[in-house]
Amino acid sequence: MSTEAIKTAGDAQGVVKQSGALSLEKVSAGTGTEMQVLIGPKDGAPHFAMRRFVMDKDGGIPVHTNQVEHEQDVLRGRAEVGIGNDTHTVNAGDVLYIPAGAPHYYKVIEAPFEFLCMVPNAPDKIEMTKK
């Protein structure tokens, strides 16, 4: 993995790296779902982490809650996403906000379904729920 620190104003540094060089890890709560941490605390990011999720055909994550909010940007594919009592069909170019504690799920319609997910660098716990 090639990580390059970039000098900026003061003592702060930034990071530039290739997302394709980062490993995808299986998401145990999901089916056919993998995730990469693109930028996070290990890179010196103090407030937020940027993650990339990729879901295969018939993939998804059942209804669950998280203790932290999610901001997401759909990059490709199509999926049914439930947030609270609402169901949405999302496509590339759609953005989502999922409040902390809101029950939500993902069900792939057109694979691969891929999205970026930004979350606060705060303690989080995923809890599987019944719909």
Concise description?
By secondary structure, the chain is mainly beta. Helix content is about 0%, strand content about 65%.
Structure in words:
The protein has 131 residues and is mainly beta. The protein is built from no helices and 10 strands. Strands 3, 4, 5, 6, 7, 8, 9 and 10 form an 8-stranded antiparallel sheet that branches. A two-stranded antiparallel sheet has the order 1-2. Strand 3 (25-26) and strand 4 (31-39) form a beta hairpin. The chain is globular, with a radius of gyration of 15 Å. The N and C termini lie far apart (40 Å).
Structural topology:
Blueprint: E1 3-7, E2 13-17, E3 25-26, E4 31-39, E5 48-65, E6 70-83, E7 86-91, E8 95-98, E9 104-120, E10 127-128
Antiparallel strand pairs: 1-2, 3-4, 4-5, 5-9, 5-10, 6-7, 6-8, 6-9
Features:
131 residues; mainly beta; 8-stranded antiparallel β-sheet; two-stranded antiparallel ribbon; 63% strand; globular
